[in-house]
Amino acid sequence: MENKTSFFSNYPFEIVTIDYSSYILIICCVILFLYFIWFIVKKKRKQQVLGKKELLLAKLHALNFSTTKQKKLAYDFTLLGKTYIDKENKEFEIILKELEVYKYHNHDIKIDPDLLKKMKRFIDELE
Question: Is residue 19 one of the residues assigned to a domain?
């Protein structure tokens, strides 16, 4: 019988086997760590968004409807309301249309009491 040897047996090289399990473990740990950080950041951002919404709602509730500066009240209500509401709201749009008369005058005009009631009711319904 003829002794068959491999091609590499004639050379003084040693075949080195590399154990990849430690590398795979390290890569898995890094991936899990990155996922954990992403999860925490996402949760914090969601809390910050809720915090901003709560702050805007508190500012809307703090609006002084008995102020003599009715024009400023109309502008503040518009700005805070548009910032608070993410999607279209027909009731809010109707109130804004009615407020345009009071916002674009050179001097302060008293806002109609019915419109003030609509604004207060709208703010109360936001909760």
Answer: no
Residues 75-114 pLDDT 10s: 898 898 888 887 888 888 998 898 888 888 777 788 888 9
Q: Does residue 28 lie within any of the structural domains?
A: no
Q: Tell whether 29 is covered by a domain.
A: no
pTM of the entire predicted model: 0.59
Helix locations, the chain, DSSP H: 21-61, 70-84, 90-103, 113-125
- Per the domain annotation, does 118 fall within a domain? yes
- Say how many domains are in the chain: 1
Task: Count other Cβ atoms within 10 Å, centred on residue 77.
Answer: 23
- Measure the CA–CA gap between 79 and 73, rounded to whole angstroms: 10
- 3 state SS of 104: coil
Residues 6+ apart with CB under 8 A from 60: 77, 80, 81, 84, 123, 126
Q: Is the pLDDT of residue 55 over 90?
A: no
**What's the domain range around 62?**
48-125
